[in-house]
Amino acid sequence: MPRLHPRLLHRARRQDPLLPLVLRGTRDLASAENELRWLKEFVTEQQKKFQSIQSWASQQNLRRLCLKRARGKPLQYIIGTEYFGDLEIACEPGVLIPRQETAASVTHLVKRLHNSGALPDHLKILDLCTGTGCIPLLASYEFMQKYSRKTGLQVLGVDVSPLALDLANRNLQRLCQDGELHFIPPRTCLHFLQGDVLAADDHKGDIPPLTTALHRHEGASGHHNPGSQWDILISNPPYISPQAFKHTTTRSVKRYEPKLALVPNSLDAKTHADNEIGDVFYPRLLDIAKQVEAKVVLFEVADLEQASRVAAMAHKQAIWTGIEIWRDDPAHRTSSEDTTTPTGVKILGTGNGRSVLLYRGDAEIWLRDPEK
Ligand SMILES: C[S@@+](CC[C@H](N)C(=O)[O-])C[C@H]1O[C@@H](n2cnc3c(N)ncnc32)[C@H](O)[C@@H]1O
């Protein structure tokens, strides 16, 4: 990690005695200024909420939080939340912090589906590797609050981690209490459940394989078609290869965010190529997409190279009529950046390669561009 120049630290200290601490965590002044402002706002809100807190104690608390940031702890774990689209999502150590680029893909997908004006009365959305639950929560919010209250929604988030599921359920509860989300079961509902996406269907263990978990869920919720179909499958799975984790993942992410959420651990690094380990979730997710008869699939990926490999895997399945690669900001379309891979897959938006969209059947109409 590059050292901070004393002149920069001095400049920061002149602005605010606490700024050099935050700067040690952020490594750049503009981010440090923003983060210090948010930490101050957080402490002020705490003081307002718990009026017994004296202002000297608040100042001490602010310094304590800045020291944590200096040690590299992510701001989201310190203040306990992160914005994901329009929603404020609770974050806790042990569960991956939601990223803005993920939110941009989800928002763009829902907007494009809505814009077609051709959606059915009822949609089923399955999110695998759900973490804080940010994706199903935002997708539900976008559909129900922003667009059409008419569409019936059955949404399910699945994760292997009990810590993630506990947090996802608390996020759901809080957003409902705050009035951000308003489900009217059974027409609109969202659940979280534990399941292992990678485990074989006949695997016996404490954590059920995904298919068993889905069967139990559909059975318990009184649906007639256990295991059945899901219209939309979304997943942001662990996708970082061991070498990329070692060489390119930042120290703060390595130290504070759960490796379970970042690097797939089901293959032995001695006998498998690095890319193969990073990609391991995708063939399984594609099988699941076929099994549940998904019409739309959105997978997050690390970069354009991984996106191209995933697009090639999907192409081999020979069931998708549409395959697109989206960059970080898929909504921002500049024709100079809209391009294609060597195999002819469209790459849309601006920024780094971020996700792969697949569709077929009715979804060709759901995703059509009304302007074309
Ligand atoms: C990259 S994080 C994504 C979290 C969240 N969807 C988001 O976008 O912020 C991947 C998630 O996959 C979960 N996970 C890891 N292995 C899994 C498995 N075999 N089955 C199901 N979930 C798994 C982790 O617990 C983690 O929450």
TrEMBL record:
InterPro entries, per the entry: DNA_methylase_N6_adenine_CS, N5-glutamine_MTase, SAM-dependent_MTases_sf
CDD domains: AdoMet_MTases
Descriptive protein name: Uncharacterized protein
GO BP terms, alphabetized: methylation
SUPFAM superfamilies from the UniProt entry: S-adenosyl-L-methionine-dependent methyltransferases
Coiled-coil parts of chain: none
GO molecular-function terms, A-Z: methyltransferase activity; nucleic acid binding
Top-level taxon of the source organism: Eukaryota
GO CC terms: mitochondrion
PROSITE patterns (UniProt xref): N6_MTASE (PS00092)
